[in-house]
Write a structure and sequence with these properties.
Elements lengths: L1 H31 L9 H10 L16 H11 L11 H14 L9 H10 L6 H17 L2 H11 L1 E3 L2 E2 L1 H9 L8 H9 L16 H13 L1
Antiparallel strand pairs: 1-2
Helix pairs in contact: 1-6, 3-9, 5-6, 5-7, 9-10
Length: 223
């Protein structure tokens, strides 16, 4: 009995240590990224090493140089309560869990901008309950260590916008040959719309995706 208890205590101690290490790493880099931009992310490495995607020249743009209309479009379509919540929309999480349980696998998400940023700069895109578990913890730590403005700036600069294309400035130059500050309303809407599946669709083929087309129509209606 004592031996079995000792084994369980070791297992619990190991799990606690793993969690503390993960929390410490995420907290350290979350604080660091308030002042320094990540040179590379796990997502970039995954796409380059596993998928063989090219690494296009990246352009970083401060949040104040991203048009307010573009910011409002992104928040409206991706996470309407971004500035109000603490990283999660629990009603959406519950609905997604029930739909995934019914489907028997992870097919639906309820990711906020905070969730998406957490997995972009700390994790990978592989869908699993383990990744979601780690994503939740990373999101909480990131929300504590970063301002919403900084998170939004990092999101705009590191989210995937195509094969080997990361960030809105890189996407703007790649697809339209100009800075994001010079985009037309129509071009902004197309770029925001393809975030549902930026690897498969482009601003030129967004209409082939039902979800991207729906997003475009909503943006057209309200912006």
């Amino acid at each position: 009995m004592k031996r079995r208890r000792s084994i369980w205590l070791r297992i619990i101690r190991f799990i606690v240590i793993i969690h503390l290490c993960f929390w410490g790493i995420v907290a350290f880099f979350s604080l660091l990224y308030n002042f320094v931009n990540p040179p590379v992310t796990p997502l970039m490495l995954q796409r380059y090493l596993v998928r063989g995607y090219p690494l296009h020249k990246r352009y970083y743009v401060p949040l104040e140089q991203i048009p307010e209309r573009t910011q409002n479009m992104l928040i409206a379509i991706e996470d309407g309560n971004f500035y109000k919540h603490f990283g999660f929309e629990w009603k959406m999480v519950k609905e997604a869990y029930q739909r995934n349980k019914k489907a028997g696998k992870i097919r639906f998400g309820a990711s906020t901008i905070s969730n998406q940023l957490a997995r972009t700069i700390f994790l990978t895109t592989n869908r699993s309950y383990l990744r979601k578990y780690l994503e939740i913890q990373a999101t909480v730590i990131m929300e504590i260590c970063m301002s919403k403005k900084r998170m939004l700036e990092l999101y705009f600069n590191y989210v995937e916008w195509g094969k080997g294309i990361y960030g809105i400035e890189t996407a703007s130059r790649y697809y339209y040959g100009k800075s994001c500050s010079s985009l037309s309303r129509n071009q902004e809407m197309k770029l925001i719309s393809i975030l549902t599946n930026p690897v498969r669709y482009t601003p030129q083929t967004y209409y082939k995706s039902p979800s991207a087309r729906q997003r475009y129509n909503l943006l057209q209606r309200y912006f």
